[in-house]
Amino acid sequence: MNFILDNWYLVFLALASGSMLLVPLLKGGMTGGISAAQAVQLMNREKAVVIDVCEPGEYASGHIGAAKNLPLAQLNERLPQVAKNKAVPVIMVCAHGARSARAVAMAKALGYDNAQSLAGGMKAWREAGMPVEKG
């Protein structure tokens, strides 16, 4: 007990460094989703439907080639029209991944159990060197 009291700063330093090691793990766990490479595999192997939940202006500035634009506010009404087969994987995409994570929750509530988010959104897609269409 004397050691802890005499060296409180070392204990604090050990706890602080340990918590800093956990931050990336927790941050990555919260965003979830699939990588750009996994998304391409789903698109090629399982004919996944790609839904871009960005606003039309963001969509026009750059999107995945096969993506259909359904802004997040319209997702509940229009998703059943765009992705008719609920068994097919659905990949939700946005600019950075936050809106697409909400879109996955909305899609799962509609019965799309294979809905997944692209981790990092279009930013991660571009960083992975994947093709982007404009217009």
Main sheet summary: 4 strands, parallel
What is the terminal separation in angstroms?
67 Å
Structural class, from secondary structure content? alpha/beta
- What's the helix count? 7
Low-confidence stretches: none
Strand tally, please? 4
What is the overall pLDDT average? 89
- Helicity level: 40-55%
Tell me what you see in this structure.
The protein is of the alpha/beta class. Helix content is 53%, strand content 10%. It has seven helices and four strands; from the N terminus they run H-H-H-E-H-E-H-E-H-E-H. A four-stranded parallel β-sheet has the order 2-1-3-4, with helices on one face. Helix 4 (56-61) links the parallel strand 1 (49-52) and strand 2. It is elongated. The model has no long low-confidence stretch (mean pLDDT 89).
Which descriptors would you attach to this protein?
elongated, 135 residues, 4-stranded parallel beta sheet, single chain, alpha/beta
Summarize the helices and strands and which ones pair or pack.
Blueprint: H1 2-6, H2 8-31, H3 36-45, E1 49-52, H4 56-61, E2 68-69, H5 75-82, E3 90-93, H6 98-109, E4 115-117, H7 121-127
Parallel strand pairs: 1-2, 1-3, 3-4
